[in-house]
Task: inverse folding
């Protein structure tokens, strides 16, 4: 168990001698390996998950297919923005990533690229994404895109992640932002239905990431990150998993009468019940002292969100 305090500041001594003294990556890296390292910095799986929520939100806001040019701009701009935020996150967290088994093979701990190169890469992606959104969407979508990058890297990664066990809660704002960015790009504003879908993704992130934090509890403790399962009792973690799973399902059902049809409603009811059942299963195993298998909830939560937003897209095409 650790106290709620930031880990010590980044020390150059934690970098390999080659990187610390020359700023160069280790020798023997092929061009392909370096390119793969840069792609890895953008965390493609996270980008993919963000886009899964963006496209259906745009379809619903457009009441069918959005303008394909606008869709392409938002997808590219959103992918670049998410990649930028992830790359800058890797730069900021390079000191703790090398302490955790889950992250020690990332490009910076593995010395595939230099910190300076990653910083330039992340900032460049951020600038390109914001410029692209500014040129082809509207001021609100652009402002939300820029704010999401800044919030994730400055407010969440630099500050909240290392100082409070509520880091996942406050960080959830960034993960849900693509829904309202896509909506704003289509309409120039965000309706109540758009905010309801934002709430679904926001609440969903707590059981999703708490399950991951349970799996890698020792890693987070070793790195001094006060994730909730590290600094709070199993009872407290169980309570929050159940609470936020229930809030996710409630938000999904609240969105139904705001402009969605029967297909979405059926999907929300069935997948929501299964999601809640999986959360209850995890909590029950915890109370019995049985092996937890938290990754079952983690993977099912991803399936839940994917099915739910596919239902949003289908309803958008069939209902209007």
Result:
């Amino acid at each position: 168990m650790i106290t709620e305090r930031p880990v010590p500041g980044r020390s150059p001594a934690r970098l390999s001698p080659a990187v610390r003294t020359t700023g160069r990556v280790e020798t023997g890296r092929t061009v392909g390996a370096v390119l793969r390292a840069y792609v890895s910095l953008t965390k493609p799986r996270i980008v993919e998950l963000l886009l899964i929520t963006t496209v259906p939100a745009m379809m619903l806001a457009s009441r069918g297919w959005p303008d394909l040019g606008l869709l392409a701009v938002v997808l590219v701009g959103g992918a670049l923005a998410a990649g930028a935020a992830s790359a800058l996150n890797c730069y900021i967290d390079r000191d703790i990533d090398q302490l955790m088994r889950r992250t020690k093979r990332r490009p910076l701990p593995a010395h595939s690229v230099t910190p300076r190169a990653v910083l330039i890469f992340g900032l460049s992606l951020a600038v390109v994404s914001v410029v692209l959104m500014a040129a082809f969407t509207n001021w609100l979508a652009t402002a939300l895109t820029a704010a999401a990058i800044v919030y994730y890297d400055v407010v969440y990664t630099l500050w909240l992640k290392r100082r409070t066990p509520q880091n996942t809660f406050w960080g959830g704002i960034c993960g849900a932002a693509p829904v309202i960015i896509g909506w704003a790009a289509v309409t120039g504003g965000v309706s109540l239905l758009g905010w309801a879908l934002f709430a679904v993704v926001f609440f969903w992130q707590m059981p999703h990431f708490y399950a991951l934090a349970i799996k890698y509890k020792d890693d987070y403790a070793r790195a001094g990150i006060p994730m909730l399962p590290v600094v709070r009792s199993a009872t407290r973690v169980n309570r929050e998993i159940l609470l936020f799973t229930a809030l996710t399902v409630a938000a999904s059902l609240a969105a139904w009468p705001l402009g969605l049809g029967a297909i979405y409603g059926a999907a929300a009811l069935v997948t929501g019940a299964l999601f809640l059942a999986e959360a209850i299963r995890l909590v029950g195993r915890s109370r019995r002292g049985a092996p937890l298998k938290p990754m079952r909830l983690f993977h099912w939560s991803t399936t839940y969100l994917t099915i739910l937003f596919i239902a949003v897209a289908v309803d958008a095409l069939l209902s209007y």
User: Anything to note?
Assistant: The chain has two domains: 31-188, 191-320.
